[in-house]
Design a protein that fits this description.
Length: 519
Amino acid sequence: MTSETDIRILTTSDTHGSLLNVNYANNETTGYGMSLISTLIKENRTENSVLIDCGDTIQGSPLMYFHQLNREKYENPVSTVFNHLKYDYFIPGNHDFNYGKSYLESFTNQLNATSLCANIVDSEKLLTFDKEYAIHSFSNGIQIAVIGLTTDYIPNWERPLNIEGLQFISPIKKLELILEEIKKVKVHAIVVVYHGGFEKDLDTFLPYVQDTGENVGSKMLEMFPQINCLLTGHQHRSISKKVRDTSIIQPASNGRVLGVIDLHFMFHDNDWKISKTNEFLLPAKDVVADSKIYELIKDVHEPCNIFLDEPIGTVPNNDLQVTNLFLARLQKHKIVTFINEVQLEASKAMISATSLGNDITGFNENITIRNVLSTYVYPNTLTVLKIDGLNLRFALERNAEYFTIVDGEVTFSPKYSYPKMEHYNYDMFDGIYYTIDVTRPVSSRITSLKYGGFAVKDNDVFTLVLNNYRASGGGEFEMYQHLELVKEIQLDISELMVEFIRTRKTLRIQDIQNIKVEF
């Protein structure tokens, strides 16, 4: 027997339906996507390797939006690609629930890969994952434990219908139980695959985000030093390093990189033991796309493009394109007013709040469905809450934290770009007029707040419409969580936008500058 051998772990995460290296907003070629990752996988797969996806896989691109509308007509293109690439394991992410349990169940049923999730249980047995963990055996005799875990914070974001009957168990508690169970089995390495991120700096272990329980990767490192590899996701970060003898990977998002961990084993004392590790990320932009991926999914990709190019209206003044996202937030772009107008009409609420995604396009002069789905990228629905003036002010103060001053110029706070890009957590309101003074301390920046021309008092009562993610407190907006629910509108906001445009055909949006930012 040879005295040394290698095991290679390949991982992707948060690919969000980016199967081709194409930007559906404009059909231009990109430096990311699974067609590029495919090339990297083929170049780096070895006889003793395992390929794992860490979730947020079947939602996030116009292609997947189109597919979920036509799920009975086409096989899921993600399962088609993953089966072609011979993925071994899939762990669900929070966005994999966005189109409901049946859509996720259909995807896992079509997958050849084993689906792993130890901490999500379905009492109604309508959604089942194959296993909590797997013991993966290699031809050289080495066995590794692969444990699947998902952030248990999902009920704070997801619409209840999509997760009905599901129980979300603490990944920490579940991991503790499984690690005890694995002691009964001979394994040479423990690999934890967690769709979640880190709540502490990996060098200093000082907190850098509010510890809500959404991310517990750092706690795993502190509590379970026996973990050899921790594959993570959710935060869309590029991480490849060793921390406290644990190899860590987080492979960005949308197929931008392939994560790799090489475990080198030596045969010592009549058994295999890890002697060294190597963790690294391979950038997708440096390779040639695998044309086979296009051939595999063209039956859904091509009708998707026809669907996306359907004209639904016009912008005669051509003033709804977004070219500078920071200015669009600082000066409240007309596209924000448009989204709020759609929400107000659909809900009949008094006040509306919306945000802009991290990367959006706005509308061309001739509006297509492609424009809409590239401007409102999440499958959110609407929630109407009853809110008093005091909680409204709390919400505005939370949003006012978005801005800061650097060298005399106003910009966005670093916490909205690190550890994760979260510009979508800055909301802009219509129906009220308010002033943000960035020179003032956080929590005391709202210097003026009016509704109908009158100053808002703490006990004034309003109806507020916003997306279901924010209404549930997502983005650290706890003030919304216990407010009275007035109603829910169970239609995707993007669908409401499409219908709004189709009905009017011509969009002339007023430039309502109701938000004043002073600095």
